[in-house]
Amino acid sequence: MHFFPLTDLYRAFNDSNEDVVMYVHVGGRYANIHYDHDPLIETAVEMHSAWGTFEWILLDGFPMKRRVGVVCNSDGHKGRPGASYPGDSIFGVYGGLTCFLTDRNDRDSIMEAKRRRHHYGTTGCRLHMDVAVKLPAAGTLFERNPDADPNSRTQQVTSAMMGDIVQTSATEVELHVEVQAHAGIERIEIRNGAQVLEAVRPYSKTDLGNRIRVLWSGAEYRGRGRNTQWIGRAQFSRTTIEKFENINQWNPDALFEQRGSDTVVWKTVTTGNFMGFDAWLTEAPEGTDERLAITTNLGELELNLLQIGLPDNTLDAGGLERKIRVFRLPDKPLQREMQFNRTVSLAQRVDNPIWICVTTEDGYQAWSSPVYLFV
């Protein structure tokens, strides 16, 4: 069997004048984005599918000045886009969805949205997202990546939407974010490339209650066999669990349950995604030394419940972003809509990929395609 490199495929497309758009997909094998790239053909990377969640497929490209958008799909081999449950299979997560931002729902408009990265992806939920950047002075918007097409059509703009590539003289811009979700919003992260600039939440420290969220996440590495098995136990002391809800338990045959009044046990798999549970605890008398002890095959974490507040308490567990995180939430359901503006400073002489990651209360995520700003 003879395998042809991507270079040959790109050459064949270009020689035949085929107007082609491709996504970078992470399946059973490692998607080596360092090997080859055609900026006019590869317009997006698949951040999530039934194979797992892969933020690295976008993050690894930023240092190489890749200017691609974000899509999420299923690849569940069940013929059910938008309802791709893994069930009893090799897949570990629910399939994703992509939303294309266009004025018309026809072939030409969808293809143009792909070429200009005007889209965002989710881990399977349907939410509305709007991300826009306001410039202090007019900048130059390129309809195609100018690194690959120096003759790209341009226009002068004072604002940009997700996926746009804009040259600007600004040192800072105003970011506008609007999200309307199917469930409560746990947080929205504002990012510049790989850096998280701010985690915006619809609640504050004074709103926190007796709900403790415990999450585990990550993968072994980027290639085949990436699944991480978690065997764990979380035990609360000097308090009891009044209510228990699991998050992202997509394989119902796997062990994941409350035992007794103070313990949760699990034997589950993550493949770049996260899963976990919420525990609503009884109110203990003031001065009681309430504690949480988490023991897993990949590490241990013990916390006084007074230590658990708004920020994540994190145990790094090696591998590819393997982590255990613990934080506190309000007792009541979270609000489903958020809208805000932020001033974002721009680094000079490099790309500034400005994008957001939304995490909802029930465990779904969504990512915008970055707005690529450069001087």
How would you characterize this protein structure?
This protein is mostly beta strands and 375 residues long. The protein has two domains: 6-201 and 337-374, Sandwich (Immunoglobulin-like); 205-329, Immunoglobulin-like, CATH 2.60.40. The protein has helices spanning 6-15, 56-59, 107-115; strands spanning 22-24, 42-49, 52-53, 69-72, 97-100, 119-122, 128-142, 154-161, 165-167, 172-180, 185-192, 195-200, 211-219, 228-237, 241-247, 255-259, 263-270, 274-281, 291-296, 299-304, 313-316, 320-329, 337-345, 352-360, 365-368, 371-374. Strands 5, 6, 7, 8, 9, 10, 11, 12, 23, 24, 25 and 26 form a twelve-stranded mixed β-sheet that branches. It has a five-stranded antiparallel β-sheet with strand order 15-18-13-22-21, with no helix packed on it.
Morphology call? globular
Average pLDDT figure: 94
Helix/strand order, N-terminal first: HEEEHEEHEEEEEEEEEEEEEEEEEEEEE
C-alpha Rg (nearest Å) = 22 Å
The class by helix and strand makeup works out as mainly beta
